[in-house]
Design a protein that fits this description.
Shape: globular
Number of domains: 2
Helix content: 10-25%
CATH class of the largest domain: Mainly Beta
Number of helices: 5
CATH superfamily of the largest domain: Hexapeptide repeat proteins
Strand content: 25-35%
Number of strands: 33
Largest sheet: 8 strands, parallel
Radius of gyration: 20 Å
Structural class: alpha/beta
CATH architecture of the largest domain: 3 Solenoid
Length: 323
């Protein structure tokens, strides 16, 4: 695996960068780091003796070594790779000839470190690059559809009798769902989470200890975990980082009044801010970890909230960021 350009800064804390994490070692699907899933999927279809990881990602190296003690993890300097294409596309993970003499002949195929490896019967192993937040949100929805195919509710979960579970859902230990809720699948709710009375949850992935308050609508969104969402919030097509807090009556808008594609601000390799067309007409917000969003805050479509940000009550966030 080689380093690759990404624009997922809002999903990572300063500590993640300082500790040598990459997005796919920090982001999780069904509670498992994405990079661990990548190695696990690859092992099901081919022999994996060695995984090559850039030496500037020590935590990622440790993560693979811990989860796969039988696999040799080899560090290398990947500065000779030309792998900084800003693309978001699917490609076959086919064998390749490595041009770096240090690692030549040691791997069967290569992939960007920030990628999602999966398998289809028709095409074999495939790689989706994870360059932008909407790439990851797309992977979340793809994985929900592929892996949540029936309803599994832990006997240690508490589901009110008046709540409706529609479609396949996975609801783990110590989850509490109050009266008159609707959980529409495919949805995954991790252990220790809570959904308040009269809330609608559809097509979501909740990390552990996600708390949703009274009368909220949460749709097509990813929660990293330990978030606290107060009453009457609407969060749509969004990524919510760990330990985020939303006051009451707040929300993430996901459609422009013009119905045009939503733009997202990135910083290019020379430090310039650019508005990038996401190609999507539905996309909400990317809220970093440890953010505090005050009551009655509206976050406009395609906005990123850096980790640790505090937004005062009543703010329309992003009104001067263009459309």
């Amino acid at each position: 695996m080689h380093n690759s350009v990404h624009h997922l800064e809002s999903l990572l804390s300063r500590a993640d960068f300082d500790n040598g994490n990459c997005p796919t070692s920090s982001l999780k699907l069904f509670g498992e780091p994405l990079i661990v899933r990548n190695v696990d999927v690859t092992r099901k279809f081919m022999t994996v003796d060695t995984v090559l990881i850039p030496s500037n990602l020590p935590n990622t190296i440790d993560l693979i070594a811990t989860n796969f003690p039988s696999i040799k993890v080899k560090e290398y300097d990947d500065t000779s790779f030309i792998a900084n294409e800003l693309v978001s596309s699917r490609k076959s993970a086919l064998p390749f000839i490595d041009q770096n003499p240090v690692i030549a002949g040691l791997q069967n195929f290569e992939a960007p470190i920030n990628s999602f490896i999966y398998h289809t019967i028709e095409q074999g192993l495939l790689v989706d690059n994870v360059v932008y937040p909407w790439d990851f949100l797309n992977i979340v929805q793809k994985t929900l559809r592929a892996e949540v195919t029936r309803t599994i509710i832990s006997p240690n979960a508490s589901i009110a009798r008046t709540t409706v579970i529609e479609g396949p859902c996975i609801i783990e230990d110590d989850v509490t769902i109050d009266d008159f809720c609707k959980i529409k699948g495919p949805t995954y709710i991790s252990k220790g989470s809570h959904v308040g009375m009269s809330s609608l949850i559809r097509n979501c992935m909740f990390g552990k200890e996600t708390k949703i308050g009274f009368n909220c609508e949460i749709a097509k969104s990813y929660f990293a975990g330990n978030a606290k969402i107060s009453h009457q919030n609407v969060i749509l097509d969004s990524i919510i980082g760990e330990n985020a807090w939303f006051g009451g009556y707040s929300g993430t808008a996901n459609v422009l009044l013009s119905r045009k594609n939503i733009k997202y601000e990135i910083i290019n390799d020379v430090g310039e801010k650019l508005l990038l067309d996401t190609g999507l007409d539905h996309f909400g917000a990317v809220v970093g970890e440890n953010c505090a969003i005050g009551a009655s805050v509206i976050i406009l479509p395609g906005r990123q909230i850096p980790p640790g940000t505090v937004i005062q009550a009543g703010t329309i966030y992003g009104i001067n960021h263009g459309s």
